[in-house]
Amino acid sequence: MPLQWAIVFFAWGGAVALAAVPRLRTATLVNVGVSAVSFLLAVALALQPFAQHGWTRTDALNTPFILVSAFVGLTTSVFSAATLDQEGFDHWRIRAYHAAYQVFMGAQTLALLADNLGVMWVAIEIATLATVSMVAVHRTPAAFEAAWKFFILCGVGIALALFGTIVLYLAAQPLLHEETGLSWAALMGVAARCDPNTLNLAFAFLLLGYGTKAGLVPLHSWLPDAHAEGPVPISAVLSGLLLNAAMLAVLRAKSIVGANPDAIAPGPFLIALGLASVLLASVSLWRRRDARRFFGWSSIEHMGIVAFAFGLGGAAANLAGLLHLVGHSVIKSAVFFGVGRAAQAKGSQKIADISGLVATHPALGWGLAFAIAGIAGMPPFLLFASEFRLLTAAAAEAPWLALALVAGMVMALAALITVLQALCFGPPTSDAAGALDGWREAAAAAPLWLHLAVATLLGLAMPGALAAMLAEAARIIG
Amino acid sequence: MSFGQLGYDVAHLLGGGVLLLSFVLLYQRRIGAVINAFATQGTLLALAAAWQAHAQGAPGLYLTAVLAFAAKGVLIPLALHAIVRRLNLHRSVETALGVGLSMTAGVALVGLSILVVLPATEGARALAREDVALALSVVLLGMLMMITRRNAISQVIGLLSLENGLILAAIGVAGMPLVVELSTAALVLMVAVVAGVFAFQIRERFDTLDTGSLEEHRGEGR
């Protein structure tokens, strides 16, 4: 089996096996094992030369995200192994949770790898179904409400994306053979000769459809609730991975429409949605009292920044957008590890109930403080580099838009710093029951610090191969 | 194929029938009648898929037709009736948007989709473009139903009929690869949504007007 499919089917095979494991300890260890092998497979795939293979392809655009996805999947499985007994699952939920986790990881990888837009759509649908069941797993009214909202909004979103895919094929139909009709590479090849009006129609549906999954305003409202109500580790993969796959789908659609000189320019639409997301999130952040919902809103802000960058276009802004996506994945999942563990330790996820973490849990508290600083765009982490590049590019090309973006980013920064001080440095609050034994407390904090180290490394000294790949990807998007 | 030929006319008739049923869904007040209208729409969609299979010479579409009939004509309506009985909703009469108002909005949406699709797809074949225009109308009417209805069952039926529109579009575009796979995958999503109603026992749609209780559910209450 080629490596592309091996990664996907290994995860799905792991899901089948995990559905049969009722014991918590065994299931978490098997889950870590499957994720570790998947990570090694992803590294092996990244070392292979780029190729198109049937329905899949590897290129500079998706390879960095496959690596990030496998990395975050592995560290999240470790965090999950350390903290899952705090969730109080019975054996059916242990089976369902782990099976859904690996189904999600396989579908996520397939969505990134897909060259065929139909396959990509199916993969994103499977990922949605898997995450909905994980969000609902606690079976509380709030969890059901969050899962239901997630399901209905994303159901409409991916339905619209399918319509866009059909219209896209309609545009290319006179120029393509039947078998290659939905291949991204084939569509790119004929995009310049397609009927531009049909392409416009397709792009509108694809942007709205996949934009819903990426959490762009005005179809964002599922995102904060879904991040807040599922088991703690799920927030990390939702924010770090699922949003990337959806954004990549938007980018694939944008590159096809952008290749046709007579079609509408996709940039202004992305800029409008992005700016709306940043501004709405920067205001909403101030009104949040729930820590996990707060960081869910912060994901909306960051997806807005990314959409703005890709809307601006050009090599510099595109590169900034890609760096931002990578940095957001790594740092936001670190934030959710910290906040999730803190919420478990304090027995509440209200910001007011989690305070003074640095005094009561030094490793967790300082790690979370650095992670929040990182997500706020402070040096030396990767998001500082990407935001700096984006603002330079935006100031040169569209100074007035850059001003609006800066206003949103500064407001969000201030909200993040306020919450950073409250969570980490306020007067210490008492712990609820639920202390972990020593090694598991360490295993819960280790992924957080590892992510911080990776984000610092990428921010200060990105490996040359990865930098070259991202620069090439910036060119693909156009 | 053009107007006046049998293949073209039957495809149009069936597509138009699906759209007509969307209007029926829009104005029915009683939940049982809404479910029956949806079952009829699913059956018509299955007939349309079977006709396209015959007209395009694409045997795979017969599978889509059989699946659509089994799931949307029979099984999902039966499941929805069962949920309605279990949640004791069968007596309830929905205070949706008034009939006149929702019909006006529906006609406006159909006009909109024709105005959007026909000029935008001048390169494509006539049957495919008109099918896509019909399908987009069904999609938009499904969304309108999701917006105007209060309880979760009607909202789900709105989503299901929206998906009927997608299948109508997919089968109308001759030669599209993976049509059977994509329509089956979409069907799986819809079955999962219906299963979600069962599992979550959701009565009201998510954005009720009572924002106070909503804030409580969102964990944002003080």
TrEMBL record, chain A:
Subcellular location(s) of the protein: Cell membrane; Membrane
Q: What is its main location?
A: membrane
Q: Which residues form the NADH:quinone oxidoreductase/Mrp antiporter transmembrane domain?
A: 114-410
Q: Where are the transmembrane segments?
A: 29-51, 63-84, 118-138, 150-172, 201-219, 231-251, 263-285, 305-326, 363-386, 398-420, 448-471
Q: Which GO-annotated molecular functions does the record name? A: oxidoreductase activity
Q: Which UniProt keywords apply?
A: Cell membrane, Membrane, Oxidoreductase, Transmembrane, Transmembrane helix
Q: Does the keyword Calcium apply?
A: no
Pfam families per record: Proton_antipo_M (PF00361)
Q: How does it sit in the membrane?
A: Multi-pass membrane protein
The domain of life is Bacteria
Q: Which cellular components does GO assign to this protein? A: plasma membrane
NCBIfam families, per database record: PRK06458.1-3
State the protein's name: Hydrogenase 4 subunit F
According to its UniProt entry, this protein's organism is Neoroseomonas oryzicola
TrEMBL record, chain B:
Signal peptide segment: none
Which InterPro entries did the record assign? HyfE-like
The UniProt transmembrane annotation reads 6-27, 34-54, 60-84, 96-120, 132-149, 156-176, 182-200
Q: Where in the cell is it found?
A: Cell membrane
Q: How does it sit in the membrane?
A: Multi-pass membrane protein
List, alphabetically, the GO terms of the cellular component aspect.
plasma membrane
Q: Does the keyword Transport apply?
A: no
Asked if the Swiss-Prot or TrEMBL record annotates the protein with the keyword Thylakoid, the reply is no
Assigned keywords, A-Z: Cell membrane, Membrane, Transmembrane, Transmembrane helix
The UniProt entry, under PANTHER family, shows: HYDROGENASE-4 COMPONENT E
This one is known as Hydrogenase-4 component E
Which organism is this protein's natural source?
Answer: Neoroseomonas oryzicola
